[in-house]
Amino acid sequence: MRKWISAAAVGMALMALVSCGKSDHFDPNTLEQSTVGELSSDVTMRLSQEEFRSVPCELSLVITNHTGEEYTYGSEYRLEVYLDDQWYILPAEEELYFTSIGVMLQPDGINSENIAPEEYREHLPAGHYRVVKEFYGAGGEITAAAEFSISE
Questions:
Q1: Which domains does the chain have, with CATH numbers?
Q2: What's this model's pTM, rounded to 2 decimal places?
């Protein structure tokens, strides 16, 4: 009898943990498909590290302007996840507020920025992601992205 009660208690505890845990994947049917087409080669972004075992506290972006034009950008960014051969926009878990500033990216210049993805989403399961930012110049708006992966 004691073994049965112990087994039942362990089973109920495991069910509680599983039901309260975070999802280990995203459902593409519940996400908005990304509208980002081909990324610009005029301004590129890369991360100082691209492989993580869990959600990183900070991502260090290196932004490079490959043109003789000046670009501006803000502190805003979004995260996207790659599912079923398609990029999807990840909504922030809570409403985010970005400081409205204009950062200059000089012609042929390189800027470094740090972002905290945990502020955007506390939990990111194993998968392939990208940080997406918009840049504004005389030729209009362009989009750049930097990809990273989280493994188990």
A1: 26-150 (2.60.40.10)
A2: 0.78
